[in-house]
């Protein structure tokens, strides 16, 4: 069966192959026909393109001509518009800037735009003549702008009245009318500092609406190559305004000789004013000048740093010259506190001075301020040393006859107490020269040395008294005054409890020495040693006579002591009562004992009051009059 099927399959395949060959022959025929048709189209299109080429050339030429005409018309319009702009700008330039400065500056910008236009379109035949005309107008405009700048700077560079400056100060620093009449601007008060947050308002030196116009003018002048004219006009105008403002305030240039010739009260007032003026000058005037300088020359290619340095140079020199003169003048103790005030204000203002005078051109200003600060610190430190030496070597012959607190003691103690109002300033000052040691320990060392110098001097002065009792009373009073003053001030924290306790013992030692020296003789009179017993005295006229002499001697000595020591003074009430009590505790028991033991020997005499003139109660009462500084006769009256 398989063998029978094979012939049929072969026949089928043969038929299909025949059909495929027939189809291929027909397809080839179709292809040849299509190629022939397309070849015919190509020939016809080539002929059509050749026929249309002249028309295309003419159309392109027409289009190009139209484009050229459009460009020419646009160029003509641009040129005509430039001519129109130039005509209007010229009219504004000829009118000048005074009436309408903003419009004038706009016209200048328009002319500059016209120059740029023709510079970039030099193929126009008339461009050279137009450029010449416009540049001439710009040259005229520059001259007029310069004149306008000069006029504006003159108009708005007037000195500021002191009252306007005072209104910009914190309320606590504004002078009252009386202050202004007395010294021109109020005094710097160290103790009132810090009572309120200090708010300073920078004064308006030039109206804000004018500043943008000045900025535009400065820009125009610099772009026109007139930097030097702009520089000079601004510098001279603002320098004069600043100097006049300071002069109206009361700032004056004083030399070392001028300072040296002044009476202390006048100099002290001027220093107080200078401190006030420095704050006004730096925080208000110089800060204001820096502000307007930055605004007027903002974005301008201009050396404003040098300009600002030059316009402020003379004013700053005048301000610093007074501080320098005081620092270099002859040192004296009373100058220490004003030197500290001056040093303090310079330290306070230094950061603002560094900010206002930033940049290399103002280096000299910053260094001058820093140099003055250091010179004031140096002079203050040297004055400290001078004061310490002056206290120890004070050779005044003044003797306080009543043994009270010596003027030197009160002066030095008040001086030291006042120093502690300047603790923070003093610590800064010490660190200027010795940053390796704690400022507080340096302050303690200085204070200790001053107190020791005072004590040494008092020891020397005590030797001027002829009465040893008064010597010890004097030392007791003065050392007690030192201790009491330290305990009641901030000095106690610096000197410490050890210093206080040590000097309290010195007070007690002097009190004991006074008691021993002043009362030893009278107590010896009341001593029973050598006087015998009462039995012996009753049968011995000599012994009775001795007792009478003892009573008479007591009366005389006590009256002398009362007459003398009632004129002496122990100014501290607590110490005075304590000393009286100490005397009474040794005198009254001895006197009572003496009267009790020997009084009967004189009571039977014709005139017993001649011997027992004072009862113990009377003696006690009279002791209450000691150390009051009043004469006994006055007390009796």
From TrEMBL:
The keyword Transport applies. Residues 171-194 are annotated as: Disordered. Residues 273-624 form the Exocyst complex subunit Exo70 C-terminal domain. One of its GO terms (cellular component) is exocyst. One of its GO terms (molecular function) is phosphatidylinositol-4,5-bisphosphate binding. Keywords: Exocytosis, Protein transport, Transport. Residues 176-193 have a biased composition (Basic and acidic residues). One of its GO terms (biological process) is exocytosis. The keyword Transport applies. Pfam families: Exo70_C, Exo70_N. Component of the exocyst complex. Belongs to the EXO70 family. PANTHER family: EXOCYST COMPLEX COMPONENT 7, EXOCYST COMPLEX PROTEIN EXO70. This is Exocyst subunit Exo70 family protein. It comes from Panicum hallii var. hallii. The lineage of its organism: Eukaryota, Viridiplantae, Streptophyta, Embryophyta, Tracheophyta.
């Amino acid at each position: 069966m398989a063998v029978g099927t094979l012939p049929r399959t072969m026949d089928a395949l043969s038929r299909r192959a025949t059909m495929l060959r027939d189809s291929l022959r027909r397809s080839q025929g179709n292809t040849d026909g299509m190629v022939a048709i397309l070849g015919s189209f190509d020939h016809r299109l080539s002929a059509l393109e050749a026929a249309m080429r002249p028309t295309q050339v003419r159309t392109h030429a027409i289009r190009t001509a139209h484009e050229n005409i459009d460009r020419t018309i646009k160029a003509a319009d641009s040129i005509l518009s430039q001519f129109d702009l130039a005509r209007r700008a010229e009219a504004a330039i000829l009118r000048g800037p005074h009436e309408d400065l903003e419009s004038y500056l706009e016209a200048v910008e328009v002319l500059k735009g016209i120059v740029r236009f023709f510079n970039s379109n030099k193929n126009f035949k008339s461009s050279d003549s137009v450029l010449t005309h416009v540049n001439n107008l710009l040259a005229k405009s520059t001259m007029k702008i310069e004149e306008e700048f000069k006029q504006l700077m003159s108009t708005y560079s007037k000195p500021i009245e002191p009252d306007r400056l005072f209104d910009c100060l914190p309320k606590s620093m504004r002078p009252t009318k009386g202050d202004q009449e007395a010294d021109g601007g109020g005094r710097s008060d160290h103790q009132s500092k810090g009572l309120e947050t200090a708010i300073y308002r920078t004064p308006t030196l030039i109206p804000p609406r004018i500043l943008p116009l000045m900025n535009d003018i400065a820009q125009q002048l610099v772009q026109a190559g007139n930097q030097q004219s702009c520089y000079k006009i601004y510098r001279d105008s603002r320098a004069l305004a600043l100097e006049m403002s300071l002069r109206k305030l009361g700032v004056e240039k004083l030399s070392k000789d001028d300072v040296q010739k002044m009476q202390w009260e006048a100099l002290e007032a001027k220093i107080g004013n200078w401190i006030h003026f420095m704050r006004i000058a730096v925080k208000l005037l110089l800060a204001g000048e820096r502000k307007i300088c930055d605004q007027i020359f903002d974005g301008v290619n201009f050396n404003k740093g040098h300009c600002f340095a030059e316009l402020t140079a003379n004013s700053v020199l005048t301000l610093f010259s007074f501080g320098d003169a005081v620092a270099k003048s002859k040192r004296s103790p009373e100058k220490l506190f004003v030197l500290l005030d001056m040093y303090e204000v310079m330290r306070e203002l230094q950061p603002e001075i560094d900010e206002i005078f930033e940049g290399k051109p103002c280096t000299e200003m910053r260094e001058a301020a820093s140099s003055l600060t250091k010179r004031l610190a140096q002079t203050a430190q040297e004055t400290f040393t001078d004061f310490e030496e002056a206290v120890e070597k004070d050779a005044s012959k003044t003797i306080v006859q009543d043994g009270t607190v010596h003027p030197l003691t009160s002066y030095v103690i008040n001086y030291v107490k006042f120093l502690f109002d300047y603790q923070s300033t003093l610590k800064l000052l010490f660190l200027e020269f010795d940053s390796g040691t704690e400022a507080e320990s340096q302050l303690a060392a200085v204070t200790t040395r001053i107190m020791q110098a005072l004590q040494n001097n008092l020891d020397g002065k005590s030797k001027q008294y002829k009465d040893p009792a008064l010597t010890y009373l004097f030392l007791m009073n003065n050392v007690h005054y030192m201790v009491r003053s330290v305990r009641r001030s901030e000095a106690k924290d610096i000197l410490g409890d050890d210093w206080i306790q040590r000097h309290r013992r010195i007070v007690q030692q002097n009190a004991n020495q006074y008691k021993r020296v002043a009362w030893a003789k009278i107590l010896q009179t009341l001593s029973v040693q050598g006087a015998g017993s009462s039995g012996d005295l009753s049968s011995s006229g000599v012994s009775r006579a001795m007792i009478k002499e003892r009573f008479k001697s007591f009366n005389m000595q006590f009256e002398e002591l009362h007459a003398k020591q009632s004129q002496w003074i122990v100014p501290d009430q607590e110490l005075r009562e304590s000393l009286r009590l100490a005397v009474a505790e040794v005198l009254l028991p001895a006197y009572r004992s003496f009267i009790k033991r020997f009084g009967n020997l004189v009571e039977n005499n014709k005139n017993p009051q001649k011997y027992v003139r004072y009862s113990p109660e009377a003696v006690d009462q009279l002791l209450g009059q000691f150390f009051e500084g009043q004469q006994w006769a006055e007390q009796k009256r």
